Amino acid sequence: MKKKGQNIDQVLDYLFVHGQLCEKGFDPLLVEAALEMHQCSEEKITELLQLMSQFKEMGFELKDIKEVLLLHNSDQHNALEDLMARAGAS
Questions:
Q1: What is the mean pLDDT of the chain?
Q2: DSSP string spanning the chain?
Q3: Which Pfam families is this protein grouped with (predicted)?
Q4: d(CA 16, CA 11)
């Protein structure tokens, strides 16, 4: 409720979508991050979660994943290049 304010409809929508995505097997932390980034269609959020899951499986940190996906408008190729460059620099 802290994230959605006191609007009960928004809170219920958030919880419903969160539950559905978790039931599909996505990591709850990734679901929460995706919902923070994109509060649009479930389809767009599912696509974003698939990218986030792939990058997390590759060993990248969630904060970096979120940052590059926002920076590159969820473009997989550019986001991955950025993540690889960051990994090489550290």
A1: 86
A2: -TTTTT-HHHHHHHHHHHHHHHHTT--HHHHHHHHHH--S-HHHHHHHHHHHHHHHHTT--HHHHHHHHHHTTT-HHHHHHHHHHHHHH-
A3: UBA_9, UBAP-1_UBA2
A4: 9
Q: Determine the structural domain holding residue 36 and report its residue range.
A: 8-89
The reply to whether 56 falls in a domain is yes
Q: What is the pTM of this model?
A: 0.70
pLDDT value of residue 55: 95
Task: Answer yes or no: is 71 within a domain.
Answer: yes
CATH number for the domain that contains residue 18:
1.20.120.1920
Domain membership flag for residue 76: yes
Q: Which residues contact 22 (CB under 8 A, 6 or more apart)?
A: 28, 31
